[in-house]
Amino acid sequence: MIWKPMNITVKLFATFRNGRFKVARQEHPQGTSCRTIMLGLGLSEDEIGVVLVNGRHVPLDQVLHDGDTLALFPLVGGG
Amino acid sequence: MLNVLEYLQKCSAGGLLPWAAQLEAVERLGLSHAAVEEFALANGLLPARYQRNRNMISVAEQLQLFRSRIAVIGCGGLGGYIIEELARLGVGQIVAVDPDKFEEHNLNRQLLSTPANLGRAKVAAALDRVNEVNPAVKLIPVRTFFRAANGRELLQGVTVAVDALDSIACRLELAETCAGMDIPMVHGAIGGWYGHVATQLPGDTTVQSIYRNWVQGEGIEKDLGNPAFTPAVVASLQVAEVCKIVLGRGELLRRRKLSIDLLDMEMHEISYHAPAEVIHFPTREIEHERAAG
User: Fold this and answer.
1) pLDDT (tens digit, 9 = 90+) per residue, B123-162?
2) Potential cystine with B40: which of A33, B45, B46, B250 (Cβ 3.0-4.6 Å)?
3) Which of B9, B4, B71 has the alpha carbon at shortest distance from B44?
4) Across the interface, do B281 and A55 touch by the CB < 8 Å criterion?
5) Going from the N-terminus, what domains does chain A have, and what CATH number goes with each?
């Protein structure tokens, strides 16, 4: 079997876009989790508000599949 | 002794009761502004100050608003605008809760703050403002922190609670108190160019879901602060939700969060539907502690 990377669409929102991107297609090895991608973007867990995969809320440890769209929103809590 | 209804009807034209007549009724008949307003509305007369509401809010609905009691938890960026809009909308009672005094760094955005108000309690400024804007509205100032321990007392008899807090921990306590008392809650939060709004009805756990990844600390507002316009946008969306809950109209932001980005001018709706499908994530010890209470 030929090892094939996964194609993941990563969407970033609000301040996560600063110095990064709004949307990007990335290749990751099979078995990559949301957390690995988050850390690869230089983000830390305590900045995370919402993690969506294909529009559904998931834990950061969720393992991604080929063709998934990961969306990350920062935590907002001011008034 | 002049009959109040006859007097108010005599002064009205086309179903509208002018302010001057309301004022005269208060002075000549020794009634409170609130009593005159409720009496007028209950008898099909619309105080003329609400005439531009008339084609979207009926007299009966205006009475429903007048008979509601809305708690505004936090009187800062969001709370200042929320209180202003609720008073102009004609909500009868507003419970305003905040422990703080105005400081100079509030002046860029907090509607109730002025240079003359610096050092003054925010809830005292709220009381003055509401009395000035709409004397028929009763504002109950409560100068304290909202916490789970005093929450039930603060929310006694409240129709809707509006979250204008600046702490995620306190928000979660407000959400739990509202859930325990079957009170709808309109949640709003801001940071820099960004904010979000969601409405939680009794039985929903949207606010808890919104902060399910939170462990401690603040969000992006810690570094970004807040400008003049973001609180006004989010506060207005919150008041529209309050109005709809009281009147039972329209489509609420229920089990969904409207996420607002004023820098890229984008709005995104994030679904919190189908809670059974949400994969829970209490893997960290602190989450277990919180769940265990």
Assistant:
1) 999 999 999 999 999 999 999 999 999 999 999 999 999 9
2) B45
3) B9
4) no
5) 6-74 (3.10.20.30)
**B 175-214 → A contacts, CB under 8 A:** 188-196, 209-214
- What's the CA gap between A31 and A6, in Å, rounded? 9
Chain A residue numbers with beta carbons less than 8 Å from the beta carbon of B263 are 14
DSSP 8-state symbol, A63: B
Q: How far is B1 from chain A (nearest CA, A)?
A: 50
Here the tokens at position B163 are 């979250």
Secondary structure (3-state) at A48: strand
In this structure, are residues B221 and B192 in contact, taking their beta carbons and an 8 Å threshold? yes
Query: If we measure between CA atoms, which residue out of B86, B83, B114, B116 comes closest to residue B98?
Result: B83
Tell me how far the alpha carbon of residue B241 is from its chain's centroid.
Answer: 9
Q: In order of start, what are the domains of chain B with their CATH numbers?
A: 4-57 (no CATH), 68-292 (3.40.50.720)
Q: Residue B64: how many CA atoms within 13 Å on its side-chain side?
A: 15
Q: How far apart are the first and last CA of chain A?
A: 54
Angle between helices B122-133 and B77-89 (to 10 degrees): 20
The residue length of chain B stands at 293
- Record: contact B259-A13, CB cut-off 8 A: yes
* CA B118 – CA B111 distance, rounded (Å): 13
Please report which residue ranges of B30-119 form alpha helices under DSSP H. Answer: 33-42, 59-66, 77-89
Shortest Cα distance from B77 to chain A (angstroms)? 6
Fill in the amino acid letter for A55: G
Q: Which residue has the tokens 């993690």?
A: A51
pLDDT tens string A29-79: 999 999 999 999 999 999 999 999 999 999 999 999 999 999 999 999 999
Q: How many CB atoms lie within 10 A of CB B223?
A: 10
